[in-house]
Amino acid sequence: MFKLRIEPTPTESLAWAVSMIAASRQFARGDENNADASGPVPGYVVWHADARYRFAPGWSVLAKADNLLNRRYATFGGLGSNFFRGAGSMFSAADAAPEQFRTPAAPRALWLALEYRFAQRGDR
Hints:
By secondary structure, the protein is mainly β. It has one domain (about 1-80, about 105-115). It has strands spanning about 1-5, 15-25, 45-55, 60-65, 75-80, 95-105, 110-115. The strands form two sheets. It has a five-stranded antiparallel beta sheet, with no helix packed on it. A two-stranded antiparallel ribbon has the order 5-6. It is elongated and about 70 Å long. The model has no long low-confidence stretch (mean pLDDT about 90).
């Protein structure tokens, strides 16, 4: 895994940042011999961005975007038995078979916030 954050501060009242997380492929939990037919969980690269603008003493507006490019990826995989392989995907213990289950990552998320910080001792 590799993480990178670039956080320039062009002015005292404005700060912004771009973050990148890159992860290599990984074998699913339970696939100790690395021979699962589904293969490893693929690697991924995901980008995040955030910004803060201080417009008055104690006041800031914040904006944040996670998974900026809305990339679809999985963060984890595990082998297990799928018992829902009967007709119409109904439960059927007789038809159970090993299958890889993957954890999907969160889609793009956007936040906008207004913040006020009370003065602390020594901030005067």
